[in-house]
Design goal:
single chain; alpha+beta; BirA Bifunctional Protein, domain 2; 3 domains; five-stranded antiparallel sheet; three-stranded antiparallel sheet; 13 helices; elongated
Length: 418
């Protein structure tokens, strides 16, 4: 049993997340603790009103909502009655027994898990400790529940069943049907071992084909370089979904240091494969297609996948080619000036401004149809700075700030005279 606790600001975001799952048939409401009506008699507005009424007792609390997920091992066989019993025991032993809480059983993952939505404001208006003390208490309670009901430990382990990492035929991962940890471990191990890449974007180009994404995470000290690497599954729309998995917890530890070593090794093995990719592009350009979709389709027939890189402004900045025959990733600039993004499209009579942005083809952001222009941001006007004598006096500024704060938290008519 693995517990994830998130302390958030505001009840509406976690509440709507679970209610959308409920409407889509991907979740079931199994418990409404400290609600007067039964679950069957509760409306969505009634469920939300009970939580917001409790929060109104202390509107000065910013981080006032707990979104907790209780994750169980895929091999655990838990009945609906046991789910309710476990949720009740967890709430009671962690000090949440007196709080209005909604417990949803989600059905959209390969492992059984529950989501709990509750608040940190007590009935008398005081707040409960929801930081490290709650996490330490939650860890002890989850161990007690495991021993009491014979559940398996769902903590991430580096020990996987034999053959898990021997991926003979890699398949695209599907959130809800593929076990997160073992699925990511298999793809990362197989792609990192068999493909030639020399940068993190090139490695991500391979992983995105199988609905996996790697991104660096920074430490607690602002301005410091990335200290770790995290892998996460992607939804069909290219959005990160599911629980992130730290690279250090995966078999083989495919961390940033491991990738740096692979980059140096692959820099020596990539150049011999350039000739084949150039030959494929020359073959396709003998009769240039007049649509970008046709160009990528012809390249795919030759075993080459095409992804688009985008600049920070959103405009296409280049291509990434994945040669499935040689298992190598190349940028368009590595092939020569004739095969760069603009020159390649010019040979087909296309313009880069009409392309789909990289987020769609590479697995992120909003999808756009081919032929739809990318709207670039307008340049901002320069705002002149005020002179020192043009600023209002400091007491006047502080008074205005106090009024705005009181108005934001209390609103007109509740202690605010303005």
């Amino acid at each position: 049993m693995f517990v994830s606790i998130h302390l958030t600001r505001g009840i509406k975001s976690p509440f709507r997340y679970n209610e959308r799952k409920l409407d889509a048939g991907q979740a079931v409401l199994i418990l409404a603790a400290n609600y007067l009506p039964d679950i069957g008699e509760l409306s969505r507005a009634g469920r939300l009103k009970r939580l917001t009424d409790r929060l109104s007792l202390n509107p000065m609390v910013l981080a006032n909502t707990l979104h907790i997920s209780l994750n169980f091992h895929p091999e655990d066989r838990i009945s609906p009655e046991l789910f309710v019993r476990i949720a009740g025991i967890y709430l009671e032993k962690t000090g949440l027994g007196g709080q209005p809480s909604l417990v949803y059983r989600h059905l959209d993952a390969a492992h059984p898990h529950l989501h709990v939505v509750t608040v940190t404001v007590r009935e008398d208006g005081s707040t409960m400790a929801a930081g490290k003390p709650l996490r330490r208490l939650s860890f002890r309670v989850s161990r007690e529940i495991e021993l009491r009901y014979g559940l398996r430990e769902a903590r991430i382990s580096r020990q996987l069943p034999p053959g898990t990492l021997q991926v003979k035929e890699a398949r695209r991962l599907e959130y809800g049907r593929t076990a997160t940890f073992s699925g990511i471990a298999g793809i990362v191990s197989s792609m990192g071992r068999d493909y030639h890449f020399t940068s993190l974007p090139e490695f991500n180009a391979i992983l995105r084909v199988y609905n996996v994404f790697a991104f660096p995470v920074r430490g607690k000290v602002p301005g410091q370089p990335p200290r770790g690497l995290v892998y996460q599954m992607l939804s069909p729309k290219g959005r990160r979904t599911g629980i992130p998995v730290a690279a250090s917890s995966l078999p083989g530890q495919p961390t940033l240091d491991w990738l740096d070593t692979r980059f140096r090794e692959n820099a020596l093995t990539k150049p011999p494969h350039l000739a084949r990719l150039r030959a494929v592009l020359d073959w396709v350009l003998i009769k240039p297609p007049d649509r970008f979709h046709d160009l990528t389709a012809k390249l795919e027939q030759e075993g080459v996948l095409t992804l688009i890189e985008s600049a920070p402004s959103g405009s296409p900045a280049g291509f990434l080619f994945i040669d499935q025959h040689t298992r190598t990733v190349f940028r368009d600039t590595e092939l020569g000036i004739r095969y760069t993004c603009n020159n390649l499209l010019a040979q087909c009579g296309l313009k880069a401004a009409l392309l789909v942005p990289a987020e769609q083809l590479a697995g992120g952001g909003k999808a756009m149809r081919e032929g739809q222009r990318i709207r670039l941001p307008e340049p901002c006007e320069e705002i002149p700075l005020r002179k020192p004598d043009q600023y209002p006096p400091l007491p006047q500024v502080l008074t205005l700030m106090q009024k705005n704060i009181r108005k934001a938290y209390l609103g007109p008519g509740r202690g605010y005279n303005g």
